[in-house]
Amino acid sequence: MDIKWIKTFIVAAQYENFRQASEELFVTQPAITKHIKRLEEQLNSQLFERVGKHVTLTAAGHRFLPYAREILAQYEQGLDEFEAWKQGYKRKLSIATAPQIASSVLPSLLRSFMNQYPDIEVLIDVLKSYEIGEEISAGRADIGLTRVKPIQMNIYCQMVHEEPVILVGPNDVNLDEKTGLHTYRLITHNHPDYWDDLLHDVKRVYPIVRTMAVNQVEITKKFIEQGLGISYLPRSMVKEEISMGKLLEVKSNQISPPASATYILTKVETDEVRAFSQFLREEIVDF
């Protein structure tokens, strides 16, 4: 039984349309028909009822579909594990992380962790902070790194780091809080946790401040560098740009910026999860 026949059957069953299946799989429609016919001959069962140009799954087709999906999943998992073995990996750890963490502290941490545990294959999935709790809850990732507490009750959440949020502007030596908030637009909502309360405090002191919502930290930093605005960002996210003179930390006089927390989320405590969790708690304090 050819795995191509299985893939074709699954896609064709999804659409119940051979033309759409051919477009999805980038093969000709006659090839779809040929794969299905070969599979039906192998199983000695008709999988589709054909009426003109329309096809529908037969009772045998419905019965075989979950088996086909399982066969394909096992095949793909086996290939992944074999490829990992060829590369020298014996274990695997999947991490779902927020973009704010992936672009700041995570690269340096991962470099050290992978040097310490070269037999662990690390897989990274960058998601919105609000999606990470669901990813862990559903078992699609082993570890979650997020800036917000999850709403899911079946996972474990621990704060592993807390850092100051600072006001950041373009590299203008004469810039202070009042001048910055009167001169530049305040770039908001680039962090998932603290902006609603912080913006209320800012508008209470500076009621005529102009704002611009940008939902990504990396874009926010580029905008600030180009003089398009100022913003409140966690220190670890701008530490490099400040040291290079691209951005300037602006002293806050009347606004008390919040703190930004980093949380680690887990559900099943494997050896790999324990190793990374312990490593993270020990190493992230330096950031």
Automatic annotation (TrEMBL):
<keyword id="KW-0804">Transcription</keyword>
<protein>
    <submittedName>
        <fullName>LysR family transcriptional regulator</fullName>
    </submittedName>
</protein>
<dbReference type="Pfam" id="PF03466">
    <property type="entry name" value="LysR_substrate"/>
</dbReference>
<dbReference type="GO" id="GO:0003700">
    <property type="term" value="F:DNA-binding transcription factor activity"/>
</dbReference>
<dbReference type="GO" id="GO:0000976">
    <property type="term" value="F:transcription cis-regulatory region binding"/>
</dbReference>
<dbReference type="Pfam" id="PF00126">
    <property type="entry name" value="HTH_1"/>
</dbReference>
<dbReference type="InterPro" id="IPR005119">
    <property type="entry name" value="LysR_subst-bd"/>
</dbReference>
<feature type="domain" description="HTH lysR-type">
    <location>
        <begin position="1"/>
        <end position="58"/>
    </location>
</feature>
<dbReference type="InterPro" id="IPR036390">
    <property type="entry name" value="WH_DNA-bd_sf"/>
</dbReference>
<dbReference type="InterPro" id="IPR036388">
    <property type="entry name" value="WH-like_DNA-bd_sf"/>
</dbReference>
<comment type="similarity">
    <text>Belongs to the LysR transcriptional regulatory family.</text>
</comment>
<keyword id="KW-0238">DNA-binding</keyword>
<dbReference type="InterPro" id="IPR000847">
    <property type="entry name" value="LysR_HTH_N"/>
</dbReference>
<keyword id="KW-0805">Transcription regulation</keyword>
